[in-house]
Amino acid sequence: MKSCMVQGAKIVSTGSAIPSVKVSNEQMSSIVDTSDEWIFTRTGIKERRLLTAYGQSVTDLATKAALKAIKNISIDPSSIDLIILATSSPNDLFGSASKIQYQVGAVNAVAFDLTAACSGFVIGIVTAFQFISNGTYDNILVIGADVLSKWVDWSDRGTCILFGDAAGAVIIQSCNPNFNSILSFHLNTDGNYADYLSIAYKEQLNPHPILNLYQGSFKHISMNGKEVYKFAVSQVPLSIISCLNKIDMSIEDVDWLLLHQANERILMAVAEKLSISTHKIISNLSKYGNTSAASIPLALDEVVQLNKISRNDIIVIAGFGAGLTWGTIVLRW
Ligand code: UT7
């Protein structure tokens, strides 16, 4: 990573939103052939939140999370320059970010969606960092939001027990380069394994009678859980180590490990590979399941609201998922 930083960047506020409807593992066992015991021991999940209200979409959750982040530092929404919505479950394929821009009153912001599944929030932060560090923008709202309940096959016990709906948001502001808090990042993609986790567009068998073109629709989430698990446990520690190496930091310097909340076993296995103490792991997936792009900002907002993080703490954030994509950011809080 070459650096020519005109200004530094720091996260100045967080916010999050979850749907009110809770679905426990016991309730899941009335939908598919599963049990609380199986789900909890294999994943660490106890319950998840689902956006069940008619007409509600990712935009509503994302807007709520964004408004909380805006309120937390009382920033005038008109001073936001850019909104990045990391989501893989937009309610408009042309993008949902512009609706959020309108709903939060960020009249001067340009807004776009970013699709990178569970790595979306990490890639969103890195994208925002580029715009700030090169001096283009001063105030950026990054949102990670997903409602995968709308894309799950509710008869597939291998996937439907994992996911929940949520949104999390942060505001990143420019600052003096000496106070820059995004110390390092490392991003990867390996499209060779894209089929391990996807929501694929399926064409109909019969083409249009005159134009001879095929139309179709998006189907459900399909996942090779075992391969995604192996990928996460092998690649995430490597990504974290190379990100720390770039800034001459070691695992001992890390105060908090905030991984994409996919599976408690993945969190523990990554921590074990890194020899990082388990009390440094931020985990809230027992309450929310895997909320995709929302999982990292949701967990971050929770620990910030609980005042668990102190000034100057080093937080390692790592996302991983479909694509396959994965990435790490080292933050000084
Ligand atoms: O956001 C990133 C995306 N995703 C992930 O990070 C997921 C990564 N993968 C995982 O977390 C795990 O692979 C899962 C939790 C999805 C599955 O755990 P596993 O230990 O890999 O289980 P498995 O798929 O190998 O299934 C073991 C057994 C199978 O039965 P047989 O063939 O051994 O008889 C499955 O049919 O468990 C069965 N099974 C279930 N049983 C009860 C699969 N899902 C369920 C279920 N309840 N929900």
Structure in words:
With 333 residues, the protein is of the alpha/beta class. The chain folds into 2 domains: 8-178, Peroxisomal Thiolase, Chain A, domain 1, CATH 3.40.47; 182-332, Thiolase/Chalcone synthase (Peroxisomal Thiolase, Chain A, domain 1, 3-Layer(aba) Sandwich). Helices cover 30% and strands 27% of the residues. It has 10 helices and 13 strands. It has helices at 25-28, 36-43, 58-72, 97-103, 120-133, 157-160, 225-246, 264-274, 285-288, 295-305; strands at residues 8-17, 21-24, 47-50, 82-86, 110-114, 139-147, 165-175, 182-189, 197-203, 216-223, 256-259, 314-321, 325-332. It has a 5-stranded mixed sheet, sandwiched between helices. Strands 8-13-12-11 form a 4-stranded mixed sheet, sandwiched between helices. A hairpin with a 3-residue loop joins strand 12 (314-321) and strand 13. Helix 3 crosses helix 4 (97-103) and helix 7 runs parallel beside helix 8. The radius of gyration is 19 Å and the shape is globular. The two termini are 21 Å apart. 46% of the residues are buried. Bound molecules: oxa(dethia)-CoA (UT7). The site of oxa(dethia)-CoA (UT7) has 21 residues, from helix 2, helix 6 and helix 7. Oxa(dethia)-CoA binds at residues 34, 38-39, 42-43, 118, 157-158, 161, 197, 225-226, 228-229, 232, 260, 262-263, 266, 290, 321.
